[in-house]
Design a protein that fits this description.
Length: 493
């Protein structure tokens, strides 16, 4: 394994943020670091209070509603038990990485941790009560299982909005320069713009290609985020001083050693830190799992394992969930079908061949949003101004109501509620091996990619979210994605 040697004057203390190797210069306590420490302390305190309050509310509802066989507990005991449970659960959240700075990923990881840790903590509490001969009523357990994650989700959403507001006013921010305007640079930009809680604000993109200078590369049209303009390189200490840059992210994995060392030297001279995306020294066609062990980045090959219990539970939830949603949305089906008939000529439903798990084709159903004369097998529209889209189709696509008929695909087992979006056959034929990893699991009605700003771009050009989901999928992550999708849809995005 090759290493990069730094000048002796450089402090070699390293941390890992967003999968990027961060090389810190001389240690100094920054305003941004102090801000993060305060926010973490506030979040931990808020979590403790919220969990204890959720337990108390659960017991109050249990006693007021008179459900189940009543087992009375003294109020002091309830508060003490709730406080003890809160302390244990916060420790479990900390162990799961809930208070780490890089815990973002569209906030889905945060929600997944809340759901998973809540369930694990309540199971542990039930086991402790059994050995301590303390009877916990089943209805009280159910209420706590609902209220704890729900109130934690609301509390963390409020903290997220608070931090976002503080960052927008300039508190605790670090100004970031991204070096490299290619695909990796856009990915880094997307992560930073989609994760305001990190406090890393990309203010400048620099590229050595003079043809890119002055252009707008990172147009986040779907979420209507501001784009970034590109400046011609190279990266110099004067440039970093002029823009007050705190962190330089080298987003060119294949950058040469001399160029990299030159950027490090210029950054350190400007009292800025440096992060970089690790070089793809291993084939990107392989499943690679990176682990940081005592400062050494180790890579292991591992394909995602199929867990029978998870697959069975997922299929049961898909069937039951799709059946319930079809029943509840019946009036919407009728109304949308009628409006489509009145809006334009053509069938109500759009039937399309898509590629499913293991490359098997299937017929996917959607409400028709484009004119009947439009080509069925062409790249999907990237914007609402596409002339192929009908007037009603613009609303259906924006509200995602056109996706409702896919619930029948989910019910029959061709799709899942959560998973990578299914692609058209002519696009799958162009897949490289790394793209074919998306075919390892069933396609889904929603997923991480659908929640991201990269939904404005082609699926196969932005597969990182899908690959992350495939490698880390679990029952609680599916629940978290569905929860965020419901909020996403309510916002009309």
């Amino acid at each position: 394994m090759s290493t990069v040697q730094f000048p002796k004057a450089v402090d070699r203390d390293e941390v890992l943020v967003l999968g990027l190797r961060l090389i810190k210069g001389r240690s100094k306590v920054s305003e941004a670091a102090n801000f993060r420490q305060i926010i973490v302390a506030f979040e931990v305190s808020a979590d403790l209070l919220t969990i204890a309050l959720a337990i108390r509310c659960g017991y109050l509802i249990y006693t007021v509603t008179s459900i189940g066989n009543h087992v009375q507990f003294p109020v002091r005991f309830v508060w003490a038990a709730g406080t003890a449970f809160a302390v244990v659960m916060v420790l479990m959240l900390d162990r799961a990485g809930a208070y780490r700075r890089g815990n973002s990923l569209l906030r889905v990881r945060e929600t997944e941790q809340i759901l998973r840790v809540s369930a694990e903590a309540l199971v542990a509490a039930l086991a402790v009560s059994f050995f301590a001969h303390v009877l916990i009523p089943r209805w009280l357990l159910v209420l706590c299982l609902i209220l704890v994650p729900l109130m934690l989700f609301i509390e963390k959403t409020l903290i997220y909005l608070l931090v976002h507001r503080l960052h927008s006013r300039g508190y605790g921010n670090e100004r970031v320069l991204i070096y490299g305007a290619g695909c990796t640079g856009r990915r880094v930009f997307s992560v930073l713009k989609g994760s305001p809680k990190l406090g890393l604000v990309p203010v400048l993109v620099v590229d050595d290609d003079p043809t890119k200078a002055g252009s707008t590369l990172f147009e986040m049209a779907y979420e209507r985020r501001p784009s970034a303009r590109i400046m011609a390189g190279p990266v110099t200490r004067d440039l970093l001083f002029a823009y007050g840059i705190d962190l330089v992210i080298v987003a060119i994995p294949a950058i040469g050693r001399d160029s990299f060392l030159n950027i490090v030297e210029e950054a350190l001279a400007a009292n800025a830190r440096v992060s970089f995306v690790p070089s793809q020294f291993l084939s990107s066609d392989s499943w690679v799992d990176y682990r940081d062990i005592d400062g050494i980045l180790l890579a292991s090959f591992a394909r995602p394992c199929s867990r029978m219990s998870y697959e069975v539970a997922k299929r049961a939830c898909d069937f039951a969930g799709s059946l319930i949603l079809i029943f509840l949305s019946g009036p919407i089906f009728v109304l949308v079908a009628l409006l489509i008939k009145l809006d334009s000529q053509g069938p109500v439903f759009f039937r399309h061949t898509r590629v499913g798990r293991h490359g098997k084709p299937f017929t996917m159903y959607k409400f028709r949003t484009m004119r009947s004369e439009a080509s069925a097998y062409d790249y999907s529209p990237r914007g609402s101004d596409d002339p192929r889209i009908t007037p009603l189709g613009k609303f259906l696509r924006k509200s995602s109501l056109d996706e409702l008929p896919q619930l029948f695909n989910v019910m029959e087992g061709k799709m899942s509620l959560v998973g990578p979006r299914p692609e058209m056959p002519f696009i799958v034929e162009q897949y490289l091996e790394r793209h074919r990893q998306r075919l390892e699991v069933k396609p889904g009605l929603t997923g991480l990619w659908q929640l991201s700003g990269d939904r404005a771009f082609l699926i196969h050009e932005n597969i990182e979210y899908d690959l992350y989901y495939i490698q880390h999928r679990n029952f609680f992550m599916d629940l978290a994605i569905l929860l965020h999708t419901s909020i996403f849809a309510m916002h009309g995005t």
